[in-house]
Write a structure and sequence with these properties.
Length: about 240
Amino acid sequence: MEQTDHRFRDFFYKPENSTKREALLLNKLLYDVQLSSALAGQYIKAYRTDVDDNGYDLIFDTEMVSRKIQVKSRMLDATTTSWDIKRGLLRPELSESLRFGMSANMEVGVSGGVILQEVKMLLGDIEVSYHYTDLSIIRLFQLQIIGNRISKRCADKLIQQLNSGHFHDKVKLQKSLFLKAKSATALIEMMGLTSSFFHVQLKELLYRRRHKTETLLNDTPKEHVEKDILTKLQNLCLI
């Protein structure tokens, strides 16, 4: 048994096994997401890209919403705290670019997101926690609705970089700009793959904050919407 556990640990930690490890973890992600959606009475289709030349590994599709996702992984005790992400993945689509106040000369993107799988070794098994971010969440850090001054600086720098350069140019995405999902079900909602009003509120808030409008969503005061978003995030994430 001890020898088996040693081989099991080697599989996850040896650099030469990184591609195999990522394939295994990707399968687990797909299983967790599709099982959670099925238990909620919904089926999420998942498509893997043959190559990630556009910066994403998966496309999740509910027939109402599609989301392009880059997947990263790290062992819980790893020292890696940032990842290279293509700018076009995080940049908004043309229809959403004005909401985020992005540069008029910026190349548009695909309004994608990034999932980080954090792996903890157990006795003969693993435990995977899911962390997620996209431009909406990064903007919440920038506005200091969530996070602290350090995460705000990271968000400021990243959004400034997204306003220039080409689609395929890469930026450093810091772990401090991710939110840890409480479950696979929460991850699905964070990606915007449900009919939750939360995402409508979030995008409306970001648009109104840009234009310094004090009311939004049928004249609801801005501070009430911010409080609702924070409460929802606390239900979904460990923040």
